[in-house]
Write a structure and sequence with these properties.
Elements lengths: L2 E2 L7 E2 L11 H6 L8 H16 L31 H14 L9 H13 L6 H15 L7 H11 L10 H15 L3 H19 L1
Antiparallel strand pairs: 1-2
Helix pairs in contact: 3-4, 3-5, 5-6, 5-7, 7-8
């Protein structure tokens, strides 16, 4: 179970000792640690529906349901990953459009597909910003494809994203939005909120 921080009944830690967002127990039951959009929170809402309709069960009383530990940290790759085969790329783009884009609008998909086409037509002339977005999108889509290593695409995109530091273009906002969505999908709650905060910060700095 999640332990309570010393001297504060609302301060939560995970089994690795990291602080969690301080929710009250009532909110924890219905919302979870990272709000209604979080995967763990979604599972707890499903359990709550099962309790209401079928009563308590091994599923609703799973002793590990609040054993929430962030996985190992991703580090940016200093070497850009080679583009996958065109067939796999098309599959990942389709998967991104079907499973990510409807819930979190990141690209105009026609423009993104055109960017992928131009990149494969002339990869040596592809700008790092475009390649960054493609790798991050591929990493996000590859989470839904077990035979593809999503982490390699994601870490390659992180490495290319370092150019964001001195670039004020809109692609930086898109890149950090993709990063936050990836962290949310793999249930890295702290990293998700940090990346989402960076996304919003860059967005507001661009429009003001």
């Amino acid at each position: 179970m999640v332990s309570v921080g010393e001297g504060n009944s609302r301060l939560l830690r995970d089994p690795r000792g990291h602080f969690r967002i301080p929710w009250t127990q009532a909110i924890l039951i219905y919302v979870g640690f990272v709000g209604k959009s979080g995967a763990h929170s979604f599972m707890e809402q499903i359990r709550h529906l099962f309790r209401q309709t079928s009563g308590e069960s091994a599923f609703t009383q799973d002793v590990d349901r609040f054993m929430l530990t962030d996985g190992p940290a991703h580090t940016h790759s200093e070497r850009t990953l080679q583009l996958p085969s065109r067939a796999l790329a098309d599959e990942l783009v389709d998967m991104f459009e079907e499973r990510v884009q409807p819930f979190s609008y990141v690209f105009h998909m026609d423009e993104f597909r055109r960017a992928v086409d131009e990149t494969y037509a002339n990869p040596l002339e592809c700008h790092a910003s475009r390649l960054c977005l493609i790798h991050l999108a591929f990493g996000l889509a590859a989470v839904y494809k077990p035979d593809v290593d999503d982490g390699k695409f994601f870490e390659s995109g992180l490495g290319l994203c370092t150019d964001c530091v001195e670039d004020g273009d809109f692609w930086c906002v898109q890149a950090y939005l993709l990063i936050s969505l990836y962290y949310q999908l793999i249930c890295k709650r702290n990293a998700f909120w940090i990346a989402l905060g960076t996304t919003l910060d860059k967005f507001f700095r661009l429009i003001y």
